Amino acid sequence: xxxxxxxxxxxxxxxxxxxxxxxxxxxxxxxxxxxxxxxxxxxxxxxxxxxxxxxxxxxxxxxxxxxxxxxxxxxxxxxxxxxxxxxxxxxxxxxxxxxxxxxxxxxxxxxxxxxxxxxxxxxxxxxxxxxxxxxxxxxxxxxxxxxxxxxxxxxxxxxxxxxxxxxxxxxxxxxxxxxxxxxxxxxxxxxxxxxxxxxxxxxxxxxxx
Length: 209
Fold this sequence. Notes:
alpha/beta; Rossmann fold; 4-stranded parallel β-sheet; two-stranded antiparallel sheet; 27% helix
């Protein structure tokens, strides 16, 4: 894996753009915006301008290669990235499946195109919609020598610092296991005393309410 850090796959809705709670509110660190998306005008989104700082730091340290894995597709670069402080990054083409549920076969609909794209590359994947079979898939990939970490934020809270810390510590562990550690022993990007929510390790749990 030398010279090829893991990919970091990033979803938008429920990760960078949390869903409003029953009261219609989102956490205070998110700012409201309106965008025109897929023929719909003034679509409301709530974005945290500091999210890009932590993602960019992982990238600049050579720990990850960030990619969009979202139904926003290429529009994530134009409509989302500027508001969260991220540069334009590549995306995985997920297609446009005609589905009415995120788990048409019992697992996340994105998984098949993502798996085809990744081949055997190591990956940390942040999405709010994983199902238990997705964690089984991640464990099977790891057993085949393709390290895989799934991070599942609470969709009403979105991406938090402890999720990024979990990615950083996981990447360092992968590098150590593959003798590619190098000089990536910096302090975690957030206070390691921050509680690490369930869902930041391989397993069937999440930090949903």
